[in-house]
Amino acid sequence: MAEFTSSSITIEAAAADVMGVIADFARYPDWTGEVKEAEVLQTDAQGRAEQVRLVMDAGAIKDDQTLAYTWSGANEVSWTLVKSQMLRSLDGSYILKPVSDSVTEVTYQLTVDVKIPMLGMIKRKAEKVIIDRALAGLKKRVESGA
């Protein structure tokens, strides 16, 4: 199993509200920073995204990628890489843990393998930056109610 990078944050909102923002891919460019475009290519019977195309600009890594999403109940979503220009693999997940009716702990796990050689320490630092930015953006987006 590949090493993954993980971080958690507490958000002042119900888990359903947090997942609502996570599942709203069209709005990702508004709050994620790295995502410049998001397009849902395929949905499941419940209308949740199964495949999403994302155009990313994370500084050193600019990419056009397609991810496959798996929804596990109401509080977990994971994804894997379908295709990418820059990445060999990308596996991630958001796991929501209700602390109370109005507080949710969100854990984001990420493993990225780039096609170009990169030291493990640098790769994990990049994963940590991506995770921390995403969690901060998610928290701000959910708590602002926008």
From TrEMBL:
Gene3D superfamilies: 3.30.530.20. CDD domains: SRPBCC_2. Residues 11-138 form the Coenzyme Q-binding protein COQ10 START domain. This is SRPBCC family protein.
